[in-house]
Amino acid sequence: MTLHTLAAPARHALEVRHSRFLAQAAPIAGADDAAVFLAQAATVDATHHCWAWRLGDDYRSHDDGEPSGTAGRPILAAIDGQGYDHIVVVVTRWFGGIKLGAGGLVRAYGGAAAECLRLADRVALVEMARVAVHVAFEDLATAHHLLAAFAAQKHGEDFDAGGARLRLELPAEAVPALKSRLRDATRDRARFEDEG
What we know:
Elements: E1 4-6, E2 10-16, E3 19-27, H1 31-41, E4 48-55, E5 58-62, H2 72-81, E6 87-94, H3 101-119, E7 122-124, E8 128-136, H4 140-149, E9 153-160, E10 163-171, H5 175-185, E11 191-194
Antiparallel strand pairs: 1-7, 2-3, 3-6, 4-5, 4-6, 8-10, 8-11, 9-10
Helix pairs in contact: 2-3, 4-5
């Protein structure tokens, strides 16, 4: 399954029995990004700021005074249920005077988050790989030509007496095909190293 993140920050407002809910979501690269977004999303007049974020296997959620498990976990479930990663969602609530009960809170927080994410523009997260390849001088033009065909970005090029060492980043799923094509095109003179 391909995971997605947001193309840009997103918002969605919802009213449930006179309580107002505002879901705000943003893509993040790390936990520090999530903390900054949560601080910016906080408003003084709101009753609760419940949130969740996911970064691969790392995740956090917070109920901010709502009964345990009625806000943060449903927001996290909305993130996971729609196949998102590298994302933070905060749902702000302004209490409207009518208690919603545990089930109502779960539906309101989870629903606001899910609808915000459903309406947002998404982009696929592509796992990238870093590799280095050493090619002889006579194969350098061929190597550069193949980089574009495999969406490889060159991050460096070092020369020695035998040729050039290219440091590349490309989609991980394209690495085996690039290796095969480059070895064929250079009569097996290209030498690869994994850079993580």
